[in-house]
Design brief:
about 400 residues; alpha/beta; Aspartate Aminotransferase, domain 1; 2 domains; seven-stranded mixed beta sheet
Length: about 400
């Protein structure tokens, strides 16, 4: 099919040409005196995106899933109790990992479309007078349902209960797109990945740990090797890594960070809000609903609910086969019930309008009773009225 594939899934995201060019480098000696000149500034600049001056950033040649495991096995001890609210596929997978690693996992199921219930969390932590719960696992942006939770509120709930639990945050599909304040929110372990807001291919796990968490690393007895933060800490101190790094990812990250800082992080966050709001207005114009409940809407991905007599998989297949547009599918219980539009990373008004138009055509082809041009018009009016002068 002529033209490029239009990628509107919530990750991997579109990689800017500047980043692709930066990654096209010959291999080099990662033990040379030149390597720290590349690597050490990356660790410092990552801290700016994570919103920390007090914490320490790390880069693993892995994925966000590995980042979950890094937090578990370096900060906690075998059999420790953790608490998590499951409201989508990725919060569920995180809880399943904790179980498989041998932790005592306290899981609470929330309706899909909701986020972390702050009142319930605070009440549960107040009940835990012996402080058996060692960590609160918080999924900042649940990619499967298009839901963003209030991490500042999670920290307030922990503080209100006078509980010493660590706060681990999955920010894989939020950090780099949505305002994240690690220090202000008292986050102990923040986990992200290269293929979302950082606009890179998969293959980089980016993390940051608080001083409280790093102190726990010194006494954790959980077995680990490749994912051991101690090895990273020792080698990173001199600008090196404990094993062979993914050099193209590092060069791409340098350029991606430069692009984010050139735009300005506050402008990046404002752009993602505008993109998400335009999609939400298009959904309303189609007469459909988003999965996220009011107040939980994500600015990086929108999950669109189809009527019971329709199958979202038909919309996704039509969009891809007829219009060369890739949309995200519904996961687990949401299979066939929602399709997802990713609006994060290297994206602007015009490119996202292409997604909305393509989805609209696929909806019409799939027999949805919508007016041609309605969603596009709603998004155009919003983007025009809010565009920078």
């Amino acid at each position: 099919m002529a033209g490029r594939n239009h990628l509107y899934i919530p990750g991997p995201t579109n990689v800017p040409h500047e980043v692709l060019s930066a990654m096209h480098v010959p291999m080099q000696d990662h033990r040379s005196a030149a390597f720290p000149l590349l690597f050490a500034p990356l660790l410092e600049d990552l801290k700016k995106v994570f919103g920390t001056t007090e914490g320490q950033a790390f880069i693993f040649p892995a994925t966000g899933t590995a980042g979950w495991e890094v937090a578990f096995t370096n900060v906690l001890n075998p059999g420790d109790k953790v608490i998590i609210y499951n409201f989508g596929q990725f919060s569920r997978l995180w809880s399943e990992m904790a179980k498989r690693l041998g932790f005592d996992v306290e899981v609470y199921r929330e309706e899909f479309g909701n986020g972390i219930p702050l009142d319930k969390l605070e009440a549960r932590l107040k009940e835990d007078t012996n402080h058996e719960i060692k960590a609160v696992l918080a999924t900042h942006n649940e990619t499967a349902t298009g839901v963003t939770s209030d991490i500042a509120g999670v920290r307030k709930a922990i503080n209100a209960s006078n509980h010493p639990a660590f706060l681990f945050v999955d920010g894989v599909s939020s950090i780099g797109c949505v305002d994240f304040r690690m220090d202000d929110w008292g986050v102990d372990a923040a986990i992200s990945g290269s293929q979302k807001g950082f606009m890179l291919p998969a293959g980089g796990a980016f993390l940051a740990f608080s001083q409280k968490a790093l102190k726990a690393v010194e006494t954790s007895t959980y077995p680990r090797c490749f994912l051991d933060l101690k090895d990273q800490i020792n080698q990173n101190a001199t600008g090196y890594t404990p094993y062979t790094p993914n050099l193209p990812i590092l060069y791409g990250l340098r350029k991606a960070l430069d692009l984010l800082f050139e735009e300005g992080l506050e402008n990046v966050y404002a752009r993602h809000y505008r993109l998400g709001e335009g999609v939400r207005r298009a959904v309303v114009a189609w007469g459909l609903e988003v999965c996220a409940e009011k107040g939980f809407e994500s600015n990086t991905v929108t999950a669109v609910v189809v009527p019971e007599n329709k199958d979202a998989r038909e919309v996704i297949a039509t969009a891809f086969n007829r219009y060369n547009i890739s949309l995200g599918g519904g996961l687990s219980e949401l299979a066939g019930k929602v399709f997802r539009i990713g609006h994060l990373g290297d994206m602007n008004d015009v490119s996202l309008l292409g997604a909305i138009a393509g989805v609209e055509m696929a909806l019409l082809d799939s027999g949805f009773d919508i007016k041609a041009g309605s969603g596009v018009a709603a998004a155009i009016e919003y983007y025009r009225s809010t565009a920078a002068k």
